[in-house]
Amino acid sequence: MIDLSKYNNEPEFKTALEEMLSSLDESILSNAKYQQVLERIIEPDRIISFDVKWLDDSGVEHTNKGYRVQFNNSNGVYKGGLRFHPSVNLSILKFLAFEQIFKNYLTTLPMGGAKGGSDFDPKGKSDNEVKNFCYAFMKELYPYIGVDLDVPAGDIGVGAREIRYLYEAYKLYSGKNDCSLTGKPLDLGGSLCRTEATGYGVTYFALEALKQYKATDLKGKKVIVSGSGNVALYCLKKVTELGGTVIAMSDSSNAIYCPDGIDFETIRALKEDRRERIKECAKLAQNVTVLPSSKDIWSIKCDIAFPCATQFELDENDARKLIDNGCIGVFEGANMPCTIEAANLFISNKVIYSPGKASNAGGVAVSGLEIEQNKKNEHWSFEEVDNRLKEIMSTIFKNIYNMANQLGDEYNLVKGANNYAFVGLVDKMIKSGKHL
Ligand code: NDP
């Protein structure tokens, strides 16, 4: 077994490696073909790191760190989001990029894995300051990306506004207009349904799993969705359309509880248009209770939970509360929101549990479809993209469920996803000579 102690100072990355390696089946670990690639697959191809110097509205210069981790391109161009958040560091970006290579393989589309971002915090900055930062960031990054090399997208702190500035800057500095970013606004060549894709995708995945394991669906279910950003918002919308009632959401300060159901348009306008805190919802809707901490969301009794905020937001104690309260399914919209201990508790209690690398792959899948449309100079209808998304989520579920069953562990979709993607990727690496 590989010694992971050299990653002790990269705790998030080390956790992602442990999760992957501990779930690989003995028949894979003992197979010489896979063993020879193991040490290679856990190291990124390259890490690009740079200073980003930008001006605030008073003309004062600030410096942030910028990064791009190009992890593995044996399944296609490097692909993965950019995150702007003060917590960003190389351990977090390596963990996200490593997860991304397996997630992208699961989509069945030809995409390798990458991730990037900066410790810049867009919160509290003016539009002009965000624009200055995005232009300065792209001035450093543009030589390393391109439609046939590396195609970044959004993530935490990088939404439609930031992608617009980043793509404008890319065109300015590179002189190209080649679809080297996805999640673009429609007028810059974006795809319909990309904004909705991750939140809709995790809901479609949940439907497949609920049908398979419990012969049920979302109608009449009480649902919790943590976060209130892009993924959480569109999960709220699709769950509601499919007959569920979202009774609680959160941001990094508070959770809200609303037994009558949370209205999509109220939260969308609050978070997307006005960029306010979720507790303000209590002033806009009836029967809303504001809970003092984001963590309080896991104490609310629900049938289904969608953790859609951030990594490690749900620990073993939270998992215990959800199980004791009768929760039957936990579907990750965020990347690794559940700790390994929480995930194991769900699995051993036969709560359906889906790892983010499978259930939140809808976003990158539609990014893949955005690249395809741009290359063909086509614009597909919302319905067409949404239907492709449904098919992809259904295929992901079936592939990993079948693998979990094959390994004799029906409720372990972590094993299912990791073994399925690992075997497929290693075969690609060997074919391309990348294991050498
Ligand atoms: P956003 O920046 O749009 O939203 C993040 C949300 O999470 C905000 O509401 C934020 O609140 C909230 N939040 C942050 N920390 C906590 C916390 N500790 N407890 C509760 N809420 C918290 O990001 P996205 O929605 O794009 O991304 C969310 C997750 O989904 C991330 O893990 C991301 O990597 C993953 N993901 C995103 C994809 C996409 O297409 N966008 C694709 C696949 C995965 P506040 O406003 O207070 O910061």
Please describe what this structure looks like:
With 436 residues, the protein is an alpha/beta fold. Among the domains are: 42-178, Rossmann fold (3-Layer(aba) Sandwich), CATH 3.40.50; 197-354, Rossmann fold (3-Layer(aba) Sandwich). The chain has 16 helices and twelve strands. The longest helix has 25 residues, at 382-406. The chain is globular and about 55 Å long. The two termini are 19 Å apart. The model has no long low-confidence stretch (mean pLDDT 96).
Do you know the CATH architecture of one domain?
3-Layer(aba) Sandwich
Report the biggest beta sheet as strand number plus sense, adding barrel if it closes.
Answer: 7 strands, mixed
CATH class of one domain: Alpha Beta
**Quick one: CATH superfamily of one domain?**
NAD(P)-binding Rossmann-like Domain
**Category by helix and strand content:** alpha/beta
Q: Helix and strand string, N-terminal first?
A: HHHEEEHEHEHHEHEEHHEEHEHEHHHH
The 3D shape can be described as globular
Strand portion, in percent?
Answer: 15-25%
What is the helix content? 40-55%
CATH topology of one domain: Rossmann fold
**Which ligands accompany this protein?**
NADPH dihydro-nicotinamide-adenine-dinucleotide phosphate
What is the average of the pLDDT values?
Answer: 96
Oligomeric state of the chains in view: single chain
